[in-house]
C-alpha cells in the first residue's frame, strides 16, 4: 500500500478554494474536467397518478420510459414541484465486518434487509415515479425491498441499458403493465466512493496500523483520497454531475424521484443540495437505511428530514400535492392495498 499520504490535519489540508460551496465547484469541474458530466379501479389509479405526477422519460430506447398515453395526459398537469427521497443502502455484509467496501459489490445482511423494509414502510405514502440506484447490489436490494412496501404497489423494474440487445430483450409491450411499473435506472456514477487500496481492509486494524488521524482523513476529509482511491471531492465530481444532468431534469418535470445509493455518494449529493461547505460536509454522517425527504420547488431544494413513519402527519403537510396524494391513497386503500 502506498504510505506517502499527507499527515496534515484535516483543517489545514482543506484549501481556501475548496471551501467554496459545491455548486460553485461543480461548475468548475464542468469547465476543467475531462470526466464525462455529463373501470373505477382504473379511474382511482389515474386520480392518484395525476396527483403523484407526471411526464415522460430519460431515454426513448426503453419502452418503460417512453411516454404512454396516460403519461402524455399527465404531462398536461405538470407541476414544478416534486418529492426527492434519498436512501443509503441497508447494512451490508462488509459493514457488519467493519471492512472498507467502496466499489466492492457485496449484498445486504439480514439486518440490512430489515432496514430496507422499514425504510420502505416509512415512505410508503410518498409518491415515487422513477428510481435511480448505483450499479451495486446493496443499493439495488435496498430500493427493491423498500418499494415492495409501497402502498401504490407498482412494480419496480430495473432498466438494462448496458447494450442494445439488453434493451430490446427487456421491453414491455403492455401500456397497462407499463403504467403499473416504476423504472429503476442503475448508474455507476452513484456508486460508493472508490476506496482504493483500503477496499477489503478492516477499519479498526487500519487505524491501528496507520494511526487514527490518518484513517479519519482518508475517510472524512473532503479532498484527501485514500491510497489509489477517490476523495469525496472526486466522488462528488461524478455523482453531482450525474444528479444535475439526469435527476434534476426529472424533478423539474414534476417526477417524484427516489435515489438509493451510498454513504459517500449521497454525502456529496447532500452537500450540493444543502449547499454545505467542504468543512461542513466532514461531520455529515448518514445511517444505513434511513430515508431523507426533500421537496423540489421552483428550482430549489427544501430539506424535509426523515419521515419517521408512513402516517406522520407533518410529512404530508409539506405540500398540497403530497397531502392530496396521501388523501387519494387513503380513499382508495381497499383497492390500492389489496
Ligand atoms: O466502507 C465504505 O465503503 C464506506 C461506507 O461504508 O465507509 P466509510 O464510512 O469509511 O466512508
From TrEMBL:
Gene3D superfamilies recorded: Phosphoglycerate mutase-like
GO MF, one annotated term: phosphoglycerate mutase activity
Coiled-coil boundaries: none
Binding locations of substrate: 88-95, 101-102, 138, 192-195, 203, 219-220, 263-264
Active site residues per record: 89, 192
Annotated EC: 5.4.2.11
Residues carrying the site annotation Transition state stabilizer: 262
Biased composition regions of type Polar residues, renumbered to the chain: 1-38
Renumbered residue ranges of the record's region Disordered: 1-40
Keyword line: Glycolysis, Isomerase
GO biological process, one term: glycolytic process
InterPro entries, sorted: His_Pase_superF_clade-1, His_PPase_superfam, PG/BPGM_mutase_AS, Phosphogly_mut1
Family: Belongs to the phosphoglycerate mutase family. BPG-dependent PGAM subfamily.
Designated name of the protein: phosphoglycerate mutase (2,3-diphosphoglycerate-dependent)
